[in-house]
UniProtKB/TrEMBL annotation:
Pfam families: HicB_lk_antitox (PF15919)
HicB-like antitoxin of toxin-antitoxin system domain location: 4-124
Gene3D superfamilies listed in its UniProt record: 3.30.160.250
Lineage: Bacteria, Pseudomonadati, Pseudomonadota, Alphaproteobacteria, Caulobacterales
Organism this protein belongs to: Phenylobacterium koreense
Name of this chain's protein: RNase H-like HicB family nuclease
InterPro entries, alphabetized: HicB-like, Ribbon_hlx_hlx, TA_system_antitoxin, TTHA1013/TTHA0281-like
Length: 131
C-alpha cells in the first residue's frame, strides 16, 4: 500500500479543503478534519481508479521535503492518505437524467476536481449516511 501526501487547507468561513501535490486538480473538502480525510481517501481512490481504467501511469508518491519546497504548500497541514493497491472492480452503469441537470452535475464536479462518476458516488454515499 502506497501513501500519498494530502495537503489540508482551512480558510476562515470555509470547509477544510484537501489537495494532492502528486495529482494536480484532485481536490475535495470536508466540514471537519475527519470528514476531510475520509473524502481525501475516497477522492484519491476514485481518481487513481480512473487513471488505471484509462491506462495512465500512477505517479510514485513524493516525499514531504520536495512537497514543502513549494511556498504555496507551506501554509497547509500535510497528512498521509493510503492508497489501497488492490484492484477494485468498477462497473459501468447507464442512468437517465435531464440534460440541464447533467450539465449542472458536470460543471460542479469539474469545478471541484472530480469526475462525474466520483461526484455521483460522493453524493450517493452522503445521502445514504444521512438517512
Amino acid at each position: 500500500m502506497r501513501n500519498y501526501i494530502a495537503l489540508i487547507h482551512k480558510d476562515a468561513d470555509s470547509d477544510y479543503g484537501v489537495s494532492f501535490p502528486d495529482f494536480p486538480g484532485v481536490i475535495t473538502a470536508g466540514a471537519n478534519l475527519d470528514e476531510a480525510r475520509a473524502e481525501a481517501a475516497e477522492a484519491l481512490a476514485l481518481h487513481v481508479a480512473g487513471m488505471v481504467e484509462d491506462g495512465e501511469a500512477i505517479p510514485e508518491p513524493s516525499n514531504l521535503e520536495s512537497v514543502m519546497l513549494d511556498a504555496e504548500n507551506r501554509s497547509a497541514v500535510a497528512v498521509l492518505v493510503p492508497l489501497n493497491d488492490s484492484p477494485v472492480k468498477t462497473v459501468r452503469v447507464n442512468v437517465t437524467l435531464p440534460e440541464p441537470a447533467l450539465k449542472d452535475i458536470d460543471a460542479y464536479a469539474e469545478g471541484h476536481g472530480l469526475t462525474r462518476s466520483g461526484f455521483l458516488l460522493q453524493a450517493a454515499r452522503r445521502a445514504m449516511e444521512a438517512a
